[in-house]
Each structure stands twice: as C-alpha cells, then as structure tokens.
C-alpha cells in the first residue's frame, strides 16, 4: 500500500482559494498596511472562492483523499452550492462591516483574515466526507468567530459574549467528538457513506445502546451550531455582544454550517430510526422556546437572535418527520432533506436582508440597540425600513414576503407528506406566535418617532462612547456597501419569492 | 320602444338621485337662507326634474302600453339559475308608475317650500335642512319604487325593494332635531327587514323551483303545491313588512318622525304600496295557494280593524293619518285575499291620491302651527280655508263619501269580498270572504268616525291657545301656506275627488285588468256601507256637538288609551321580541368578551408569561449555561438510549 496518495487538486481548488485569501489578506495587511487594500483583497478572494466553487461544482462530482471506496473529500453539487453561499455571505459581511471598520473599532487586517479563515472552514465543510473532516471544518468555521465576537475594542459585553460562545462551543464540540469516537468504537468506520452502509447493513448494531448514545451525541453536538434548544443559550448573548456584522454572520453563515453538517450526517451516515425522534424533539423545543422568549425581547438583536433560534427549529422540523416510518420512505426522505435545505436558503437570504437593514438603520459601529430606537425609522429612511419590514414579514411567513411564505409551505408540505401532521401543527402554532413579535418590530418601524428621537444615543447610556462617536453619523446616509448588500439580499428575496421553484429544484438535487 | 320607456322609468330619477348625492350635503358659510345656497338650488332642480321626467315617461308608457310587454337580457347564469335584467310592462304597471311619479313630483315641489327656514325655527338660529341629500334620497326612493313597478325579474324587484328600505331609513331619520327620529328609522328598518328575510327566501324558493328568476318564467312554471304555499307565505312576510300589515305594522306610526312630505311619499306612493303591488304582480301564484290567501285574509282583517280603531284615539294629526294608512292597507290586502287584485290596485291608486293630499295638508297645518297635536288646533277653517277644503276632500275620500275617489274603490273591495262571502267567488275559502267583508264594513263606520273627528277637532270649533313653548305671534295667526305648498295640494285634490269616476272608463279598468263593470254596479249593496258611513260620522258629530272643546274620543272611555297606544302592540313586541333579542345579544356579547376574548387574551398572556419565564431562565451566568448544555446532552442522550433501546 502506497503511502503517497494521488490528490485531486482541482477538487481542492475552492479550499485553496479560500485559504489563500486568508494568507493574502494577512500579507496585504502587513505589507501594504492600508485598510482599503486589505478589504479589497479579502473581497476579491471571496469572489474568487465563489467562482471557483461554482466552476468546480459544474464539472461533475470529484473526490479525493480516498481509502478504497471511502473518500474524505467529496466535491459535488451540494458542496459547490455551500461553497458559493459561504463566499457570498463572506462578501456580504465584508460590505456590512465597512462602516464599523472605517470607524476604527476593530483592527481591519485581523478582522478580514479571520473572516477568510471562517470562509475556508465553510467551503471545506460542504465537501467533508468523513466525521473528522466534518468536525475540523466546522471548527475552522467557528474558531475565528470566537475572536471576531470579542474583537470590538473596549467593549465588555463583547468580551463576555466571546467567552460564553467559546466555552459553550467547546463543550458542544466535545460532545460531538465523544459521539464520533463512540460511533467509531461501535462500527469501526468514520466515513459518512461507510457509516451509513454499515449501520444499514447490520441492524443488530442498532440494538446496542452505545450506538444510539453515539448517534444522539453527534447530533446534539452539531445542534449547537444551529443554536437548537437546549444548546442555544449562547446565541442571544453572543449575538447581542458581537458587532452587528458578526452577529449577522453568526446567524447566517454559522447557522448554515450547522445545517450542512447536520444534513450530512443525517442524510448519509446515521440511521433515521434514531435521528428522527431526536431531531423531532429538538425541533419542537427549539421552535417553541425560541418563539416564546422572542416575545419578551426589547433589544433588537436579541429579538433577532431568539427568532433565529426559532427559525432553526423550522429547519430541523422536516427532518423530524424521519421519526415515523411513513417519513422514512425514499420519497419522504428526499422531500424532507430538500425542505430543510430550501428553508435554510430562504432563511439565510431573509436574515441577511434583515441584518443588513438593521446595520443601515443604526449609526456606524453601533450595536443593535433597543426596539424603541427603531421607532419612526420609516420616516427617516423609507426604503431601508421597507426592506427591513419585508424581510421581517418574510421571516414571519406572511405575504408579501413570499419567500418566507413558500419556505413555510415547503416545510409543512414535507411534514404532511411524511405523515407527521402533529409536527406540522406545532410549526403552524409557532408561526402564529412568531407573527406577534415580527409584526410588532415591523410596526415599530412605522410608529411615530419617540419624543427623544433627536438624542437616539441617550437611550443606551452604556453606549455613550458610541453615541458620541456616531452622533455626527446618525443623520448621514449609510455606506453604499451596506445599502448594496441590502438591495441585493432584498432583490434575491423578492426574486425567489416569485420563483421559489429555483430554490426548491436546487435544494432537491 | 315601450321596453326602452320601461328602462327609462326608474333610470331617470335614479340618475337625478345619484347626481344629487354628489352635491355638498351641508350648505356652506352658515347662511342657509333659502334660495341663497347654490347647492340647494341645484338639488331642487335635480329632484323636480327627475320626478317630472319620470312622470312624463310614465304617461308616455301609459299611452303606449297595450298587452303585457317583456324585454329581458340574461345578466348572470349561476349553475342553472338564470338572473335576467329586463322589464315587464302591463297596464297595471303603467298606471301605478304614473301614480308614483305624480306623487313624487308633488312631494318634490312641496318639499322645496316645506324644508326651508320656516316661521317656527328659532329666530337667529339657522336650521340646516341638508336639502341636497334629502332631495337625492327622495329621487332614489322614487327610482327604487319604479324599479319594483317595472321589474321583469324577481332579483331586480328585490333590489328595488331593498333600496326602498334603505331610503326609508335615511329619510325617516332626516330631521336631526327630533329625538325620536333615529329610533323610528331604526325601527322601520329592522321591522321591514324581518319581513324582507321572508321575502328573500320566498324569491329564492320560487327561483330555484322554476330555474329562473324571470317573473314570466316563475308564473308559467308548474310549482308543487307545497313549494308554492311555502313561497307565498314567505313572500307575505315581506309584504307584511313593507305594507305595514299586522304584526309588522308597528314601524309605520313611528315613521311619522320623518318630514311630512316623506310621510306622504311613504304612505301614498312608494314603500307601503310596494307590498300590495308585489302581490298583484305575482297574483297567479297566490291564486294557486289558497292557504296563503287565507292567511293574508286574516292578516288583512286584523290590520284593517286594528288600524281604524287605533286611529280613533290619536292626538297627533300625522299619527291619525298613519293609522288610517294601516287600515286602508288592510282593505287592499283584503281585496287580494278575496281574489280581486284589480280592486286592490284601484284602492291603492285612489289611496295614493287622497293620502298624499291629506299628508300635504297636514304638513301645511303643522307648518303653520308648529305642532302636530290635535288638542292644540281648532277653528282653522276660517284662517286656512284652502287647507280645510283640501283636508275635507281627502277625509271624504278616505271615509268613502260618494262620489269621491275612496267611495268607488272601497266599494269595489267590499263588493269583491261580498261576492267571495256569499257566492264563494274567490280563490280562497268562503270564510275568508266573510271575514274580510265584515271587517271592511265595520271599518267603514270606524273610518267615518275618526275622519269626522279629525276634521272637527282641527278645523272647526274655537281656536285653542297654543302651548307656552309655541307662544309666538305667528302661531296665533295661522294662514294658508305659500303657493309652492298650495299648488301640489290643490293638484292632488283633483284625483282624490275624481279618480273614482275612472271606474266608469273601460280604458282604465281594462288596464288594471278588472272584469267589465265590476265596480260600477250602483245598487242596493251600496246602501249598507253608506248607512254605516253616515252612522259613524253622525256619532262623531254628536259627540263633538255636546262639547266642542272636548275630544270625541273621550266616548271610548277606558279603551281610549289602549287604542291610542295601538293596542299596546309595541309593548307586546318589546316584550316578546326586543327584550329577548337584546338579552340574547347581551349574552352573546358577554360570551364573546369573557369566553372567546378571554381565551384569546388568555393564550396571549400565557404565551408572553411563558416567554418571560423562559427568558428569566436564560439570564444565567456562564457556568450554568455550560452545565445546561451538558445536562441537555446527557438527558437527550439517555432518553434516546432508553426509548430507542426499547423500540
């Protein structure tokens, strides 16, 4: 057996591009030492990564790092989609970060480098073919975020958020690794497809309690990444403490990574008999707790954080249909996976639009503020507020936010096809609860401004420094990059709202 | 051409009404001096032009119409049910249309003078009569009635029928100064609405049974006996509502809260006539449903006597007239019940003439005195001679004094009832004929009594001093109204006096569809009602002679207040219908507020409370959060192992 493998470098090209971006950013920051150049390099790298993903993905599936038939790196259509999405999200995040970076509250070089590293993890994640690659990619995606969350200079909340995020994340990773180790102990395999074949071929393995425990632990560890209850406690505090663009990245890219990882193990490796009930339980808990707590939030980012917890529940819900025998037929499974992917895409687009609008409405470098700070926003910036309202209505799943409506319909249809009517009912009830806070936030935008609107900064005394710094910027137009991101996200949301079949077809592949 | 005239007939006042609604409703600038407001002038022009145009069209139609003319185009076709737009014109429709348009024109002209700043408005206080919407609503009212008259389809008829209900509501409530007006309007609307539900169901039943709503198709279809009886009874409910038949008559006396010209319109030409007219229109159906006719006969007899007796004790001039309308409507429906629709239509026409005249005359009296109370009148003959003679003609026609109009038409009704009673000539059983005939004869006497009383109390005897609130010089010197009020009165006095003689003109009776010579048999049968008439009038006169200052109604003794209150049917209605319904409404409201709202708000509060509790749990420090994650993993893992292991 030769110790030298032939490596398919074409398949690895997107990963090379992403990693190269990180290195180039570091070099540019060191040698050119100009913020604009650094950001430009990072943006160019993100574009190159996205293009590379698409081009390589278009060329048919490729695999490398193979042992016999099992490959650790499989670059297919879904990997290309995930890679391109991560690249686009990174690009959007760079655009959203523009004002904050210009305000000098974070070091530009480090910020862009960490973002590029995270993107690398995301690109590799889509192609991961075994549990080790999967977990390492996921950690590569997450690790830079600990630092990014805490990168705001002189903010205690930021540091606290970073520590919470870090500790809870480590615990979760431990749980996943423990599960993977146990799984290896039971089956002797780590490759996803091999695990799937092993578990399907030997039903007696399922009778061993250790198998069930291992499967559950892997799932629960990954559930942390999508902030599913009960592994969600980090999310609100972290989102709120992080700079707004990072919170946006956490709730879109990081969540997308979690969903990709979960789907990979659920679809390819783990037995549906065990994952189904666990996921169904997680989905119900996540939706319900997320929506209920979101009802009481008074801070905008916390509200969005809790709502994204609830949204994770909707993403998990179709997978919960696997709990029933009717949901484990080939058709129903395909529909459930497609629904989860489609919902994720719709959610990511809408969430990005919502965060972009929030960044545009807030002063440069400020945090999310309270709901009251947003009163009367529609008078000041009718277009931005309109886009925000559209995104919120879409997240709530109402027309005219057709994208969100179709997303919910897809989920409910998959559940009904899978015979999980009760879960569909839970989704519906939660959607109703969700209306309450989404519409209240949307209505706040159009409410008459508060008496103290002129001194918006005084509403948050802790932000006195920010308010002083942003006082001049509060009335000025938001950066064009932010508006561009918002416009693109809104246009995409409207487009997929009118042509949802595009996303549904893509998700079914 | 005839069909076009039929379409134009309701269209002309409809356009006038709709355009009139566009005018500014309230005169601007506060200076509401009559004639100074351009909107008012335009409204006057529109209203009069609309009514006059309708009258011209109706007369042209009357001249042209021969046999029944039908035009129709399909409007919608709903799963085997055809709704058409079309007119159905015959002699009766043309004659009624002329009557409606003529009364409407008289009312429009009269209103110009009646609704202006009058002598009894407080000096210096400009009363805004909101003339433009008023005139427009009268035009719409007329248009709706004309639509009912010419409609060739039951759905169109229903449209006109309902628009009338709406217009009556608006017009009765027109006078904002009267505290009772809104309540009276609401009552009229609700009571007629109760009947309208039956009417709607009846139309639906007929339409479904015949597969078409076209009147010709419905009449030609061979309905099953049960369907026909049910449909006719349901239609009768609507007829009772609109034509103020017992037990749905209670709205009519209260509707006196409306301006007097509106009362004239409602009582003479539009609202109450619609019910009777609708039955004559569909009479071939009723002929085949004797049970429905029997019910109608009973209702008619009760209504006839009830109205007449209630009219005897009223102190309000307009309420006397209102109750007399109820009574006269009883004659009309009685004629229908004994199978004489032509007699009913004839009485409808003469009644339209003399009742419009009476109301306009009453308006003139009220206009001059500022009070509608008989106990405040007296001796007006010398000061208001024109009004006196007009009222005398009207009351004579009402009581049936030969040769005035009412005599001939009432005789026609009584003759038909007599024939039905003695010879079983009608489609209904003979006992219905007896009932209607006897009630009609009794009604003649009572009518004569209250008509005489009204004339004596208001116009003869000594002038009574006005009440302190009306203590103004002008009231002490009542006078005949100005020409704009007087001319419509005088013109209406002509048909009120002479229309009865049309019974001798074959062209007229033929158009109404009456058999040759039905109403012209002058003979011994006429003596009985005449004797009763003289007896009734003499009794009233005798009672008044004894004390010209006192009310002849005191002879009624303890029955007086009962009659005055309309047999306390309002109280009965209040106890049996209004109070249970409001109690039910209170209950439903309480159930909605406590149970439904409570459940909804409870879930809302529960959800936010739960959210708050959960949020409280999440305000934890880092160690507890980490412990929570581990505990969650442990619990779910254990659950998966235990439950999954068993499965």
Describe this structure in words.
The complex is a heterodimer of chains A (509) and B (647). Chain A has a domain at 272-509. In chain A, 74% of the residues lie in helices and 2% in strands. Chain A has 20 helices and two strands. Chain B has helices spanning 2-21, 38-64, 91-114, 131-150, 154-172, 181-210, 215-220, 225-242, 251-254, 260-269, 271-281, 283-287, 290-312, 317-337, 341-369, 380-383, 385-399, 405-423, 430-459, 473-476, 483-498, 506-512, 527-546, 559-564, 569-618, 622-646; strands at 69-78, 81-89. In chain B, helix 3 (91-114) packs antiparallel against helix 21, helix 4 packs parallel to helix 11 and helix 14 runs antiparallel to helix 15. Mean pLDDT of chain B is 82; it is low at 29-35, 119-125 and 468-475. Chain B is globular, with a radius of gyration of 30 Å. Chain B starts with a helix and ends with a helix. Chain B has 26 helices and two strands. Classes of the chains: A mainly alpha (509), B mainly alpha (647). Chains A and B meet through helix 6, helix 8 and helix 11 of A and helix 25 and helix 26 of B.
């Amino acid at each position: 057996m030769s110790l030298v493998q032939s490596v398919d470098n074409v398949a690895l090209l997107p990963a090379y591009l992403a990693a190269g971006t990180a290195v180039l950013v570091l070099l540019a920051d060191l040698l050119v030492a100009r913020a604009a150049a650094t950001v430009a390099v990072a943006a160019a790298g993100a574009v190159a990564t996205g293009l590379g993903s698409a081009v390589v993905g278009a060329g048919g599936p490729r695999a490398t790092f193979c042992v016999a038939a099992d490959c650790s790196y499989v670059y297919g259509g879904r990997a290309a989609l995930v890679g391109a999405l991560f690249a686009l999200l990174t690009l959007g995040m760079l655009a959203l970060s523009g004002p904050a970076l210009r305000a000098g509250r974070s070091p530009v070089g480090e910020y862009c480098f960490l973002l590029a590293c995270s993107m690398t993890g995301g690109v590799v994640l889509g192609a991961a073919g075994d549990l080790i690659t999967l977990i390492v990619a996921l950690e590569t995606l997450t690790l830079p975020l600990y630092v990014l969350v805490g990168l705001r200079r002189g903010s205690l909340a930021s540091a606290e958020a970073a520590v919470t995020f870090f500790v809870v994340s480590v615990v979760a990773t431990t749980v996943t690794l423990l599960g993977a180790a146990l799984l290896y102990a039971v089956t002797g395999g780590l490759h996803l497809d091999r695990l799937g074949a092993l578990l399907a071929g030997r039903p007696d393995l399922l009778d061993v309690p250790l198998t069930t425990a291992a499967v559950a632990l892997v799932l629960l560890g990954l559930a942390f990444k999508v902030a599913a209850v009960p592994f969600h406690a980090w999310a609100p505090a972290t989102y709120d403490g992080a700079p707004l663009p990072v919170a946006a990245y956490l709730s879109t890219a990081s969540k997308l990574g979690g969903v990709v990882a979960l789907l990979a193990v659920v679809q390819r490796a783990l037995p549906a008999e065990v994952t189904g009930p666990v996921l169904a339980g997680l989905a119900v808990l996540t939706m319900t707790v997320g929506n209920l707590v979101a009802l009481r939030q008074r801070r905008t980012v916390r509200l969005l954080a809790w709502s994204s917890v609830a949204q994770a529940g909707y993403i998990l819900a179709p997978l919960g249909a696997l709990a029933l025998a009717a949901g484990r037929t080939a058709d129903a499974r395909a529909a459930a996976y497609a629904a989860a992917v489609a919902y994720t895409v719709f959610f990511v687009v809408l969430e990005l639009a919502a965060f972009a609008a929030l960044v545009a409405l807030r002063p440069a470098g400020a945090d999310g503020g309270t709901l009251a700070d947003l009163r009367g926003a529609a008078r000041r910036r009718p277009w931005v507020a309109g886009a925000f309202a559209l995104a919120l209505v879409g997240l709530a799943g109402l027309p005219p936010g057709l994208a969100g409506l179709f997303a919910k319909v897809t989920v409910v249809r998959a559940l009904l096809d899978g015979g999980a009517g009760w879960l569909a009912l839970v989704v519906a009830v939660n959607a109703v609860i969700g209306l309450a806070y989404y519409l209240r936030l949307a209505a706040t935008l159009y409410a008459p401004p508060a008496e103290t609107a002129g001194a918006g900064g005084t509403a948050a005394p802790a932000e006195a420094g920010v308010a002083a710094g942003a006082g001049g910027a509060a009335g000025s137009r938001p950066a064009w990059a932010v508006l561009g991101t918002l416009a693109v996200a809104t246009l995409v949301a409207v487009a997929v709202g009118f042509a949802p079949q595009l996303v549904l077809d893509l998700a079914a592949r | 051409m005839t069909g076009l005239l039929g379409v134009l007939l309701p269209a002309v006042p409809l356009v006038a009404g709709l355009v009139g609604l566009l005018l500014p409703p309230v005169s601007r600038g506060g200076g509401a001096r009559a004639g100074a407001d351009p909107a008012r002038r335009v409204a006057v022009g529109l209203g009069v032009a609309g009514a006059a145009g309708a009258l011209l069209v109706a007369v042209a139609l009357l001249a042209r119409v021969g046999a029944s003319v039908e035009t129709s185009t399909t409007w919608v076709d709903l799963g085997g049910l055809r709704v058409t737009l079309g007119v159905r014109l015959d002699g009766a429709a043309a004659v009624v249309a002329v009557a409606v348009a003529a009364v409407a024109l008289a009312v429009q002209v009269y209103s110009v003078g009646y609704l202006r700043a009058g002598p009894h408005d407080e000096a210096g206080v400009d009363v805004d009569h909101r003339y433009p919407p008023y005139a427009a609503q009268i035009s719409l009212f007329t248009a709706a009635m004309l639509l009912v008259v010419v409609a060739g389809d039951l759905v169109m008829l229903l449209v006109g029928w309902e628009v009338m209900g709406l217009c009556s509501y608006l017009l009765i409530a027109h006078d904002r100064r009267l505290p009772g007006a809104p309540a009276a309007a609401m009552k009229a609307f609700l009571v007629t609405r109760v009947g309208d539900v039956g009417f709607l169901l009846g139309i639906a039943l007929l339409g479904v049974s015949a597969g078409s709503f076209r009147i010709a198709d419905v009449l030609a279809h061979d309905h099953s006996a049960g369907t026909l009886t049910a449909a006719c009874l349901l239609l009768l409910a609507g007829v009772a509502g609109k034509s103020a038949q017992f037990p749905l008559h209670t709205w009519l006396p209260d509707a006196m809260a409306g301006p007097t010209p509106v009362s004239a319109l409602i009582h003479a030409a539009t609202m109450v006539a619609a019910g009777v007219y609708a039955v004559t229109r569909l009479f071939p159906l009723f002929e085949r449903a004797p049970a429905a006719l029997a019910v109608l006969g009973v209702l008619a007899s009760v209504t006839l006597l009830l109205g007449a007796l209630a009219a005897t004790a009223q102190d309000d001039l307009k309420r006397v007239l209102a109750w007399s309308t109820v009574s006269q409507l009883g004659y009309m429906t009685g004629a229908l019940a004994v199978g004489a629709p032509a007699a009913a239509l004839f009485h409808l026409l003469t009644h339209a003439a003399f009742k419009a005249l009476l109301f306009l005359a009453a308006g003139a009296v009220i206009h001059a005195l500022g009070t509608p109370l008989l106990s405040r009148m007296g001796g007006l003959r010398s000061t208001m001679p024109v009004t006196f003679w007009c009222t005398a003609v009207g009351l004579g026609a009402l009581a049936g004094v030969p040769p005035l109009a009412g005599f001939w038409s009432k005789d026609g009704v009584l003759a038909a009832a007599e024939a039905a009673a003695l010879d079983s000539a009608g489609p209904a059983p003979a006992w219905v004929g007896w009932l209607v005939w006897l009630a009609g004869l009794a009604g003649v006497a009572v009518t004569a009594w209250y008509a005489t009383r009204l004339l004596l109390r208001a116009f003869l005897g000594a002038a009574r001093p006005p009440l302190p609130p009306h203590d103004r010089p002008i009231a002490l010197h009542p006078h005949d109204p100005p020409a704009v009020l007087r001319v419509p009165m005088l013109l209406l006095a002509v048909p009120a006096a002479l229309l009865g003689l049309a019974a001798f003109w074959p062209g007229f009776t033929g158009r109404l569809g009456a058999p040759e010579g039905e109403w012209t048999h002058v003979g011994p049968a006429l003596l009985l009602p005449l004797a009763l008439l003289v007896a009734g009038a003499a009794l009233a006169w005798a009672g008044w002679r004894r004390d010209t200052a006192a009310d002849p109604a005191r002879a009624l003794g303890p029955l007086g207040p009962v009659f005055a209150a309309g047999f306390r049917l309002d109280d009965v209605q209040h106890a049996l219908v209004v109070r249970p319904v409001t109690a039910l409404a209170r209950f439903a409201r309480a159930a909605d507020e406590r149970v439904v709202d409570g459940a909804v708000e409870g879930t809302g509060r529960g959800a936010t409370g739960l959210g708050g509790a959960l949020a409280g749990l999440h305000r934890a420090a880092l160690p507890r959060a980490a412990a929570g994650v581990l505990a969650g993993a442990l619990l779910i893992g254990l659950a998966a192992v235990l439950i999954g292991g068993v499965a």
